[in-house]
């Protein structure tokens, strides 16, 4: 059976689409809260993740995204609410009985075991015979392109290789859901980009649900099918990367996902007649000679390689504008007229959820 | 003032330019101490053990011989070796079993103030005199002691009597039995086991235990396959202390225990009253030899793989 890759991809998309609509979600959080004393790490979160989805939990540190992942893995118990995995209430199920496996941020490889035994660990505690588990581990290792490393110790591997081992160790158990906690956080930029596309390809090939935590919005947008944006224990918005980027629902999402300009409600009232905050992407603002919608004072500029970014002060509100490289950069202190296409100004929900 | 500052800054400048000189200055005194005082006396001891004593004159004959080592295998001497090694092993195993949960708690759960309380609790017995501790144990274990009184008050004397009636471990009272010696050894050397085990467990990141559970291991499987192997270097380090300290001690078995001797007492008597320095030296080599075998076996069994 030689299926063309694009055909497979489109089939996957159809499967994913139908999964979203009809099947029981792979993971479902039902008004889950996790409080540590006075701190509400996760507060009344509702979340449905479909089978086969590549799902990102995105947010700054301390926003509750990692706690959410740990709740799904079973390392944390919710203070209230229920964690449901494939339709079964897993709230009181210990981690070792959940059909999910985790790739840890620090990889958590066992230093006293070699790579093969690390990968075979899950099969060993299940009581599989040595030959069978070693064969499965070899297969998992070749899946992550680490075929020749079976006999080495974790300390003899580079960060990127350890990460692959951690991946193989989780995948060898054929989990229904794979959880990844900042999987690329410890890698350098070049390796990170490479692993991003590899992870994405791997998920396509295996067709299992990936849920990953990241604070890097670029990573979330480029890899995930859907993104949940976290802030202070709440989910601010759930949606496809394009939606979250283009149509942020709250000022936090606008600012955190791709550093959009957030216009305060009084300014939006003048521009659009609605007293709500709005987001305006830096790359959608143009400088114009006449007939600007706003006038700004240039207070800074920076060369970004592919473009120039200028910082403007507009009646006390700070805006950034991304100028194409071909456009002239205005002098510091000069006044410029700003305009944008209709529809670029995206009005949001109020400040609070 | 400024003069001295320039002199001292000039000295530090020259050290900065030639760091090896500073290193030599720092390392030489302790190396001399270790090299001459410690290793030197160790080799002198080893050399003594290859001499023998003239049975008529009672003087040391400075000729190479293995006769003294052969004497170790005479029944009365060999008993001392076996007794001491069995005692040291029992003390080590008991210390490891008692120390592990304490160390585990301290490494994994104790935070802030409780950690300080833990360290204080472990270290405090080490600050008081060893003799005071041993004598107080004699008072606890003696026939007129607290333990006897406690058993009597609870009308459980028969249990104690039944235990003391057991040959070898029993005796007239706990304070003159091998059980008493064992209890005091375990008490006195326990901190030396707890601290290295705790240090080893401290280095195990919590994510490693979570990973084990995540991969399907129950708590007991995690204990067996992850925690114990990672704690093993600490247990071995602790057992070096408990094992060698027990083998070399001559005061505890003198104060609490039977009249049968252990290696330490034998060394003390042979080099002192008996004046048989070669035999004392041969006895003293036994613990070193046993520790050597023990560490080799431990290494071969992979006890240090997690290091």
From TrEMBL, chain A:
GO terms for molecular function: ATP binding; ATP hydrolysis activity; transmembrane transporter activity. InterPro entries: AAA+_ATPase, ABC_SmlMolc_Importer, ABC_transporter-like_ATP-bd, ABC_transporter-like_CS, Mo/tungstate-bd_C_term_dom, P-loop_NTPase, Transp-assoc_OB_typ2. GO terms for biological process: putrescine transport. Gene3D superfamilies: P-loop containing nucleotide triphosphate hydrolases. GO terms for cellular component: ATP-binding cassette (ABC) transporter complex. Keywords: ATP-binding, Nucleotide-binding, Transport. Residues 27-257 form the ABC transporter domain. PROSITE patterns: ABC_TRANSPORTER_1 (PS00211), ABC_TRANSPORTER_2 (PS50893). The keyword Transport applies. Signal peptide: none annotated. Belongs to the ABC transporter superfamily. PANTHER family: SPERMIDINE/PUTRESCINE IMPORT ATP-BINDING PROTEIN POTA (PTHR42781), SPERMIDINE_PUTRESCINE IMPORT ATP-BINDING PROTEIN POTA (PTHR42781:SF4). This is Putative spermidine/putrescine transport system ATP-binding protein. It comes from Roseibium hamelinense.
Automatic annotation (TrEMBL), chain B:
It comes from Roseibium hamelinense. Residues 81-298 form the ABC transmembrane type-1 domain. Its main location: membrane. GO terms for cellular component: plasma membrane. It is found in: Cell membrane. GO terms for biological process: transmembrane transport. This is Putative spermidine/putrescine transport system permease protein. Belongs to the binding-protein-dependent transport system permease family. CysTW subfamily. The chain crosses the membrane at residues 21-46, 80-105, 117-137, 149-170, 182-201, 226-252, 273-297. It is a multi-pass membrane protein. Keywords: Cell membrane, Membrane, Transmembrane, Transmembrane helix, Transport.
